[in-house]
Amino acid sequence: MERSANLVDSFVKMNTKLTRLRQHTRKLVREENAMIEGNEGSCYLHTEESDEVKIEKSSCPECQGIPDAGKKVPHISDLCSADKQRIAELVKTLAECTQEKHKLEDELSVCKSENEALQDRFQLRTSEYEADKDRLKSKLSNVTTEMAKLKIQTSQSLELLTRQFSMQESQFTKLTETVRDLLGEKMQLQNILIEREMKVSVAEAKLERMKESMEMEKLIFLKEHAKNVTQRFDKSCQVSPSCQTVITLPSYCQTPSVDRTNSKKDLPRTRQTKNKDDLEAPTTEGLLLRELFYKSSNEPEVLNIFPILPQH
Questions:
Q1: pLDDT-wise least confident of 25-39, 144-158, 210-224, 273-287
Q2: Rounded distance, CA 249 to CA 166, Å?
Q3: Which of 230, 311, 308, 307 is nearest to 274 (CA)?
Q4: Contact, 236 vs 285, CB < 8 A?
Q5: DSSP assignment, residue 228?
Q6: What percent of the chain has a predicted confidence (pLDDT) above 70?
């Protein structure tokens, strides 16, 4: 479309140039003719005059030399010099008017050609405008359709987003409540764990104290029992020549140094021994001594003492 418009513009310009060139050529021809007329002067007027009245002369009897006394016909020779001068001026004015007429005709032709070119250009512009208008209308309709589709999609997307936001909000609320419950349970479990650790530490402390007290009671019991056994053994011990076994009390069964000193003052300074056959008698003291000092190698050396723990 732009190329055709450019071609029309160039055509209009060339046509205008040609018309102006033609007009300028005619103007030059007229100026040349005017110069020729100015040089010839009255001869040109006379020639023009004779050419114009040539037909009248052929029909005029006086111009032909035939007198007609009965009829009087007006003749150019009857005119005075002033009338002839006026006629010559009128002829000159007529020539100028004719030149102006030709000039105006040339300008009119130029204007007509320009008008035709402008009309063609206007038609082309109008057709282009109509084509652009139709194209824009179709484009507008397509855009309107697309906008309607986009509006529908946007509304659907907004509804979907609204539903998703509501669902996410409810899920977030549930998640918040769950996290709060979990935190509460965690705090409760931590408190329970702390209480249990405290109870365990208290129980361990109690158990340690109980163990220590049991050990002390055990040691005291063994010490007292060994002391009683030693005293009974000292009282019932007799010296026998066939006795080959010497009983030596362990260190934990010995009495304190003060007691031993006191007992040594009362007892004679002799080694006390006892026969193994005498210990085999089924007496309480013999059984106790057998358990304490004459256990077999297969049996464990430590006495099985089962303490009874106090119930809490």
A1: 273-287
A2: 91
A3: 230
A4: yes
A5: H
A6: 51
At a CB cut-off of 8 Å and minimum separation 6, what does 299 contact? none
The number of beta carbons lying within 10 Å of the beta carbon of residue 144 is 10
Examine residue 304 and state whether it is found in any structural domain, yes or no: no
- Give pLDDT tens digits for 32-69: 666 666 555 444 444 444 455 566 566 666 556 565 54
User: Which two tokens mark 132?
Assistant: 């652009």
Contacts of residue 68, Cβ cutoff 8 Å, sequence gap at least 6: 61, 62
**50 within 8 A of 91, measured Cβ to Cβ:** no
User: How many Cα neighbours within 13 Å face the side chain of 24?
Assistant: 6
Q: How far apart are CA 119 and CA 123, in angstroms?
A: 6
Tokens of 160: 């979907």
Q: Which among 101, 123, 148 is the end of a domain?
A: 148
Look at residues 132, 148, 164 and tell me which one is the last residue of a structural domain: 148
Residue 172 inside a domain? The answer is no
Structural domain includes residue 305: no
Quote the number of domains for the chain: 2
Mean pLDDT of the chain: 71
CA distance to 40, 43, 49, 65, per residue, from 34 (Å): 10, 14, 17, 36
Whether 207 contacts 307, CB under 8 Å = no
pTM of the model: 0.32
Examine residue 100 and state whether it is found in any structural domain, yes or no. yes
Domain of residue 80: give its range. 2-64+74-148
**pLDDT digits 0-9 by tens, 239-258:** 444 444 444 444 444 444 44
Is there a contact between 253 and 226 (Cβ–Cβ < 8 Å)?
A: yes
Report yes or no: 293 and 286 within 8 Å, Cβ to Cβ.
Answer: no
